[in-house]
Amino acid sequence: MKIVIAPDSFKESLTAKEVCHAIENGLRRVWQEAEILHVPVADGGEGTVQSLVDATQGKIIELTATGPLKKQVDAFYGILGDGKTAAIEMAAASGLHHVDHALRDPKLTSSYGTGEVILHALDNGATKLIIGLGGSATNDGGTGMLDALGVKFFDKEGQRIEPNGAGLSEIATIDNSGLDSRFVNCEVLVACDVDNPLCGEHGATATFGPQKGATEQDIEFLDAGMRNFGEKVQQQFGKDIINVAGAGAAGGMGGALLGFTSAELKPGIDIVIETVELGSQVLGADLVITGEGRIDWQTVHGKTPMGVAQEAKKTNIPVIAMAGCVGKDYQAVYDYGIDAVFVAIPRAFDLATAFAEAEANLANLAENVARTWKISK
C-alpha cells in the first residue's frame, strides 16, 4: 500500500514536516509495511519556505536584515535541494510582526530588507527565486526592495528619495541602470493569492493599508503616491503595472516585481505543488492524506488541502483531510476533491493544551483513520 502525506503546517504547533511524522507514526500502528511518502506543502504564506526546504532536502539560511522601520531584524530564506532555487517570504524581513502596533505607519515603512535578503540569495548562487508575498508592513510599491538592489529614485530636483510609502508621491525619475543584473536575469516566481491592482478602490493601499496603520487621510495620500510610481514606470519603461491583477499584493511589491523583472505571479499553492513535484509523487498511491490546522469554508479558496486534493483527483486517488479543528461550512471541501475530514481534538480543552498535545492527538487520529479504512475493505 502506498500512502502520500501532503499537509500544510498546523500554525503555532507543528510544521508541515512534523505533521507528516505524526501522521505516519499513527498509520504505522496499523500499516507496518506500507510505503509512506512525506511531501510537506504550503500555500505561499507563512511556512512556505520551511515546507519547500523540507520537501527538497534544502537548508535554511539565517541573516540579519533591515526591518520595516530601519532597525535590524532576524530574517531567513531557504536554498532548496537543487542548490540554485531560493525561497523567500517577504514577511521574513519586511513583515508586520516586526513593527509594534503603536508604531505602524505605512508612510514610513520600507521593504529594503527584502531586497537585502534577495541579494544574499543571489550571492549564494541562486538563479531562481520563489518569493512569497503577504504579511508585509509596507506600502512602498516595492521601492525599498528595488533600492537595495540598485534602483535609484529621484525627485524633480534630482535628489534621492527615501524609498518608503511617503516617498512615492515625490518620484519624478527612476534610474534602473544599477539594478543587479543577476536579479534581472534570474527566474522569478511570485506566490500571490490576491488579485488587487496597484491603485484605486481595490488597490494595495485601500485594501491593506488600514491593517498597516494607515488613516483615511493616509490612504488618499498613499494611493496617489502609488499611482505616481506606476505612471513613472509606464512612462520610462513601458510597463503598465497599475491595472495588473496582483500588482497591489504586499503593498505594491507585486507591481515592483512585474515592472523590473520577468516575474510570473501565480497562486502560492500552484508554485509549491510544482516545485515539490507532487503530481509525480502521488502516482500509484492508494491514499493521499492532507490537512491544516483549521478547515472551514475558506479552505476551498487556494489553501493547501485544495491544491493537494485537486492534484490527487487527476488520477482518482481518495483524499482524506486531517485538521486540528473545523469551522463554519467546512463541508464545502467535499465538492473540491476531499472525500472525508477528520478532527484531531479528542476532548474539550484550551488552546495551549491543543498546541501541546497536537503531535500525539494527530498520531492517534491517523491510527483511527487507518483502522477505519482497514475494516472498510
From TrEMBL:
Coiled-coil ranges per UniProt: none
Matching InterPro entries: Glyc_kinase_flavodox-like_fold (IPR018193), Glycerate_kinase (IPR004381), Glycerate_kinase_RE-like (IPR018197), Glycerate_kinase_sf (IPR036129)
Keywords: Kinase, Transferase
Gene3D superfamilies per record: Glycerate kinase, domain 1 (3.40.50.10350), Glycerate kinase, domain 2 (3.90.1510.10)
SUPFAM superfamilies named among the record's database cross-references: Glycerate kinase I (SSF110738)
Record Pfam families: Gly_kinase
Molecular functions (GO terms): kinase activity
Similarity field: Belongs to the glycerate kinase type-1 family.
Name of the protein: Glycerate kinase
Organism from which the protein derives: Vibrio algarum
